[in-house]
Structure prediction request, 172 residues.
Amino acid sequence: MSSNWPTEKVRGLVEMLWLERHLLEYLLFKLVEAKLIMVADEARFVSQAMSEVETVVGRLRTTEALRAAAVAELAEAVGVEAARLSLSYLAEQAPEPFRYSFEEHRDGFLNLAGEIEDVTVENRRLASRAMRDLSDTLSVLIGGGEGVSAYTKAGRTRSVASTLPFRLDEVL
Prediction:
């Protein structure tokens, strides 16, 4: 391996990683926003929130391609295979002051990946619950499902016959 690390290429990769981390933070924000919309049961905004998530993911894909190109250029310049230039490798082998930056990026990416995974799992759970609720409601509306309940004037629920027509806003 060459001991001469091209400063501009290393600096360019560090800057590219900052951009990618900012986009991942923004993705996390958009995922949390989508989660809050689902928790608030604001179904009319879910598609807009998910569209915004897809937009950020598209920007991330573009940035990932640019990062891969920057890594390939740096690998060629220092005489190492691009596959070896992981953040851990860069944190150990890059010259100062860049080692610290690569350590920060490695830790930051690991933390963001964990947070994004957690929110994504929760969003899937909320979306599945919403789909079950929608299916149950459609079952009642279309087929007059069993065990339908309605609110009484006192605010309690009571089983009602599930024959159509049935008004969901009917007070018994």
